[in-house]
Design a protein that fits this description.
A hairpin with a 2-residue loop joins strand 3 and strand 4. The chain is of the alpha+beta class. The two termini are 19 Å apart. A four-stranded mixed beta sheet has the order 2-1-3-4, covered by helices on one side.
Length: 200
């Protein structure tokens, strides 16, 4: 199993966390997004969108972090990242999608670069853009998650797997986190798990 990844990619970070939590052995192949390797022909064969992560397994190339994690959940069901009950699974997926689909795409490197290069947005405007979408997501999650240690109940779920990279990037962009004590506590609890720490 081979994972094409970039160390600062939230999407790839999610997959690394999931792989580690499930104890799945894989080879990590770096794709330098800053240098533009994702746009080279070799990588576009793996993923025509020119994104990471890409997971190569059993002769297949899988893309999109949540699709990859759902695949891992089916192929390596223990420990589970989704609750046993349908309402619980829907709740976890809802939180994961709030991060991975409603927030992260607005703040990934290609979007931030487009704001600067094509629309002339300065650094202050770019930072304001980033903070707006992250704070909107975090306010909703803070109101939705259970008390620590984890987003839903007492076990790690897909929601936690998605939260950790977003908190990491929020800190990188100096987003104040004081209004989100539950999210910060969950992030601390996740950081104490060896498999999660090793994914960073």
């Amino acid at each position: 199993m081979k994972l094409y990844t970039y160390f600062r990619s939230s999407a790839a970070y999610r997959v690394r966390i999931a792989l580690n939590l499930k104890g799945v052995t894989y080879d990590s192949v770096p794709v330098d997004l800053v240098a533009g390797q994702q746009s080279e022909a070799e990588h576009l064969v793996r993923n025509p969108l020119g994104l990471v992560p890409v997971l190569e397994t059993s002769g297949q190339r899988l893309s999109q972090s949540l699709a990859i994690i759902e695949y891992l959940e089916e192929m390596h069901p223990h420990p589970p990242l989704l609750p046993a009950d349908a309402p619980g699974r829907a709740r976890v997926r809802g939180m994961a999608l709030a991060v991975a689909c409603d927030t992260h795409p607005l703040n990934n490197m290609s979007v931030l670069r487009f704001l600067t290069d094509e629309l002339g947005v300065d650094q202050a405007g770019r930072d304001r853009w980033y903070r707006h979408w992250v704070e909107r997501c975090f306010a909703a999650l803070e109101a939705s998650v259970d008390a620590a240690p984890y987003c839903v109940g007492g076990t790690v779920s897909l929601a936690d797997v998605c939260l950790v990279p977003q908190v990491f990037n929020a800190r990188r962009f100096s987003v104040p986190l004081t209004r989100y004590p539950k999210l910060v506590a969950i992030d601390v609890a996740m950081a104490a798990i060896d498999a999660v720490a090793a994914a960073h």
